[in-house]
Amino acid sequence: MGDVHEDPLAELALRLRTLRAQRGLQMGGLQQRTRLGRTTLSQALNGQKVPTEATLAALAKALGADVGPLLALREAAARLPKVRESLPRYVSRRSVRPRAPLSFEERYLNYVAERHSQLTVVGLDLSRPERAHWPLDAAYLSLELAERPEGWPGDGEEADRPSVVVKRAEHALANCRRVLLRGLAGSGKTTLLQWLAVATARDELPEELADWRGQIPFVLPLRTLVRRGPLPEPHDFLTAVGAPLAASQPEGWADDVLARGGALVLVDGIDEVPQEHRGATRDWLERLLAAYRDAHFVVTTRPSAVPEGWLASSHFAELSVRPMSAPDIRVFVGRWHTAARQNAATDAERSQLHDLEAALRVTVRAQHDLAQLSSTPLMCALICALHRDRRGHLPHSRMELYEAALSMLLVRRDLERSIDVPEGIQLTEHQSIQLLQRLAYWLIRNRQTETDLGTALALVSDALPAMRAVAEQGTADQVLAHLVGRSGLLRQPTMDTIDFVHRTFQDYLGAKAAIEAHDFPLLVNNAHDDQWEDVIRMAVAHARPAESADLLRRLISRGDVDNEHRPRLHLLAAASLYYATEIEPDVRNLVEQHARALMPPRSQEEADTLAALGPGILDLLPGPHGLESDEVGPVVRTAAAIGSDQAYAFLQRFVQSLPPSSVSYELLEGWEHFDADHYAQEILLPFRDHLPLAVQTNDQRNALRLLKPITDISFRGKFTEDEIIEHLSPEHTERLQIYSGQLLRDLKFIRRFTALKELALSECIQLSHIEDLTGIRVPNLRLINLPDNFSFNALASLPELTELALYTRLPWENLGELPAPSRLLSLRLAGWINTHLAGISKWEQLQELVINAAPTPAEWREISALPNLTRLYISEYDLAQATPAPGITYLQLSPVDADTQLEWVPEIFPNLEQVSINCRLSLPDVTNVAPLKRIKKLQIYLTYANQVVGLEEFAPGMVHLYPRPRTHGT
Question: What pTM did the predictor assign?
């Protein structure tokens, strides 16, 4: 008790970290127990700031420790000179006394935590752009990610399953080792990688990501790597990103970290790589994956940069960043204004920010179009900044928003501080834009998003002779330094590189430069490249009416002669209409006529592409009359994703003429884009008996009162058992699916549902068994992502169980140990169950089997011996090892590589009546169906096959393609 510590603050932080480690608590659990903010906890655990007595009391209670010694250390730390608190302190994942020498690994982790611990937030501090930063642990917002359910059948009774499952980032990443993350510009992809890097380095990953703990993060921004030449091998990772510790890296260290499965490789920005080099980038990734199979990888890209399934053959899960929900927007707006108040100079300014925050919350909630604009962190930050700058008045369109943001960042910051000539340089808004345009356009033409300092200086230097008023004020070095330090648009990530704070500003300014240079041929010649999509749209917005008409005609003309890129070019022209201020009627008609040839959409991908064009596309969407069955859902999805009042009116008209039997699941998925009560009553109610319901939010759950009685319901958000039951009638509910069961403490409430025919349970982290279900007469049970050491013993006590799905790790060596009733008719198994299929033959009544891991020859023999098996769904297979199974009449193949192995199908499955081949994950260049002609009267269904050969071998109506190809007139 009487020990004197040289650095009591460091000792206090060390004791707190030790106590946390002893209790096995992560930051998320500690937050819940203490009810303290992440920043407060981080500062206390890392010794960055003397904690308050209240903070220590809360921590001591949560950690089960005596608060006395902790308060004594706090008192000693508080007596030290205040300057000590401002000194940088570093966190180590090991309990090491501050003066002990750190290993290279510890130094590297400290570096990563410090290097990536700040977020740049546009417009946060207009007077001091260099202060426009948030601490990551205070600013990070866990966004929603969408994933496709893995391994479920795609036809028949499962066709109405959710096409995507939405989860918070930490839940979606759990159980994944390799992830391809898709997201629009400004959606938060890079921020998520930053958070993963810092949380991993600090050993602060939440409980959901327990499998990721202990990793060493490598942050690899491709925008930097591709500019420096060949992509680096592991020993060059640190050098390639300019890490100052690279020179002291021990020989073979990176290789050792990766080889032992201890690396988290974060590869940011496939879309930043020129299109023609993306194949080489994938080869580089696949070489790393082959050499280091146990490492974790997260790769980010914009959605249009690479096709779906681009890395599926390497077993990457694909996740997509969702637009921010209304609650997320409210949280972001609150955090932005909280951070701004911390930077405010006076109480009056802080009070004004309180008022502005309240006003903006009301405005975003009341104006649907503004809420749509606010749906990414970048745009939401811009809106917050402009709302503050303009005292509550906001632009109405995206381009007006960008224009106002540029004016605010370039001019307003110094006017507010009454500074006329910062750093001896005074540039008008127009002069600054001219110089920034030159830099932006050079980056776009050279397909880069950052440049070296020398090139940037040369570009500024070349401009100065024509800008005498600027040249007279200083050298190119001084002017560039002014733009970096004062514009709020440029930054210097390293000593020798320059880039824009966000790609969106680069595209906006580069498009303006292209129009001023009359570079229409250059724009059109690159219009097929996804890196130029935003540039083209913004160029149409910047152009004068005659120029925009010329540009649109050129896009249509190129599409008419370019078969490969025709849909992309014609849809890009249609998307650009929404950006144009004024368009000649004949040009608008020309563009819309060509867009109609791509209507109606026939797949989710086509729907998403059309929705991205904006509200203008609604005028081209057809009503339900005359639509084919594969077109109804995509049309609904397109309108719902647009999400405006105009889109809601379209859906109201659409459903009035839609027969109940034709309703599609997309109608339900559109619920999230509109007011929950109105949508439930006016859109969903007429189809209540034909559509399974699914709720994600509390607003949707409360709207269930308008849809009673409910027979088929999925809960995708986290709800308690009382919340689940509240609006259900147990005697009516036949299908109950709980996809986010983290709050369930037991399953006794399930017994109330006397009419239940199907039950799904997922993410039930507080449960260790299903004993509460003993004796219930549910025929269909799905268990998904349950905790390790979960007990399945009660499966044997379900008297009417005939259909079982297991998408979770199993505790047995062989499937024969599974205590499921012998009467099973259907068994569905995930690829990660970690259990061999040996013993599957004991379920002799099986009629349907879904497997997602390649069977061994012995397992194939057991499968083929099942006497009643007629339906087989397989992925990750090797048919060369299979035993003939003449009883199979329906086969679904979901290959994970380009070899579909169709040549083996007639020999292994000679009595097939129907085969479905889903190429979504494998994307083979060519799918040859000719070998299947040996099976008479076979119906063939091909999904997402790029190029199909052998069709001439089959009679019309025998081969069905999805998406259905477009031919002349259809």
Answer: 0.66
